[in-house]
């Protein structure tokens, strides 16, 4: 099947948490979300892969977690 990958830059998360590994740990440990997070070019990149087995609710849960983490 076709896979779509969206890359999002979130500098606000870097200001709050520092390195990508810390953000990835918070997503996993506090929100139970498995998501690659990378440091690159003075920013943070989240690699979100849309697959048929993911539901819209899972993307909404990620958005909610990121909003919580940035506030």
What is the fold's blueprint, element by element?
Layout: E1 4-9, H1 11-17, H2 20-31, E2 37-40, E3 43-50, H3 56-70
Antiparallel strand pairs: 1-3, 2-3
Describe this structure in words.
The chain is an alpha+beta fold. The protein contains three helices and three strands, in the order E-H-H-E-E-H. The protein has helices spanning 11-17, 20-31, 56-70, and strands at residues 4-9, 37-40, 43-50. A three-stranded antiparallel β-sheet has the order 1-3-2. A hairpin with a 2-residue loop joins strand 2 (37-40) and strand 3 (43-50). The longest helix has 15 residues, at 56-70. The protein is globular and about 30 Å long. The termini are far apart.
Task: Briefly characterize the structure.
The protein is built from three helices and three strands.
Radius of gyration equals 12 Å
Number-wise, the strands total: 3
Mean pLDDT: 84
Helix amount:
40-55%
Specify the oligomeric state.
single chain
Which regions are unreliable across 5 or more consecutive residues at pLDDT < 50? none
Beta-strand percentage range = 25-35%
Main beta sheet: 3 strands, antiparallel
Secondary structure class reads alpha+beta
Number of helices: 3
* Helix-strand pattern: EHHEEH
The gross shape turns out to be globular
Order of the strands making up the biggest sheet: 1-3-2
| Straight-line distance between termini | 36 Å
């Amino acid at each position: 099947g076709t896979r779509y990958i969206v890359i999002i830059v979130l500098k606000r998360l870097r200001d709050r948490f520092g390195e990508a590994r810390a953000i990835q740990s918070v997503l996993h440990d506090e929100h139970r979300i498995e998501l690659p997070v990378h440091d690159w070019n003075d920013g943070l990149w989240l690699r979100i892969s849309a697959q048929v087995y993911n539901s819209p609710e899972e993307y909404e849960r990620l958005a909610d977690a990121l909003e919580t983490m940035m506030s």
